[in-house]
Design brief:
With 230 residues, the protein is of the alpha/beta class. It contains 8 helices and 12 strands. It has a 5-stranded parallel beta sheet with strand order 2-1-3-4-5, sandwiched between helices.
């Protein structure tokens, strides 16, 4: 379950917001001041943080800076009742992923949180994958984008590289078309689907020299990237 650390000193607003976020499937840890929020962060390590700027004991900016020192890649969003440009600029300079001014629609906050989490997850997945992938008789360097075997060498495009890495991560598993499209293209509309088909054809040509590597289509379901020697 995705978890949120909410730091908000307004009891009525914080209580309503916590309930609403939990209705949308989040686990919410709510603290009423910056010091308590920092202690809770060290305890639970949430998926994302939501901080009010004006809080007692420690304001949201200071809290965010201290959390960044502890966990530089932690995503966070600021809430504030003030629409001042300086506050927004300061928040973004600190590293905030987003900024929302009260009053706001709770649905908008949920949407922004989900988008931030999605982006953060994709960045983390890309950082975690190793530099050199062994794919049957092929080696693929994720930095130089060079795909090689003992017969050929091919420098692929960034989109091709992203697709290769996605398939490698899900190798020997059936993956739905819409999941591939959302992960690599960002949406699953008609035009993205046609574009993916072109890229799939290219990848099949790139791996044709090794019979142990195949990219198989399961009609009406998805694709499976098979590597027989893994």
């Amino acid at each position: 379950m995705q978890t949120i650390l909410l730091a908000e000193d307004d009891f009525d607003f914080g209580s309503i917001l916590k309930q609403y976020l939990e209705l949308h499937g989040f686990k919410v840890y709510w603290e009423k001041d910056g010091i308590a929020a920092l202690d809770k962060f060290k305890e639970v390590k949430p998926t994302i943080c939501v901080f009010d700027i004006m809080m007692p004991k420690k304001d949201g900016f200071t809290l965010a800076e201290e959390i960044i020192n502890l966990s530089p890649e932690m995503p966070f969003l600021f809430l504030t009742a003030r629409g001042q440009k300086d506050d927004k600029i300061k928040g973004l300079r600190i590293g905030a992923d987003d900024y929302i001014v009260k009053p706001f629609e709770a649905d908008e906050l949920v949407l922004r949180l989900k988008n931030i989490i999605k982006r953060s997850t994709r960045v983390t997945e890309k950082k975690e994958i190793q530099e050199t992938l062994i794919i049957g008789k092929y080696t693929f360097n994720t930095k130089s984008l060079l795909l090689e075997d003992n017969q050929s060498s091919k420098r692929v495009t960034e989109k091709e590289a992203e697709l290769i890495q996605f398939f490698y991560k899900h190798k020997n598993s059936l993956v739905k078309r819409e999941d591939i499209l959302k992960a690599v293209w960002g949406n699953d509309d008609f035009f993205s689907g046609r574009s993916m088909d072109v890229f799939i054809t290219r990848l099949r040509k790139y791996f044709k020299n090794d019979a142990q590597v195949s990219l198989e289509s399961i009609r009406g379901v998805g694709l499976e990237f098979k590597i027989s020697n893994t």
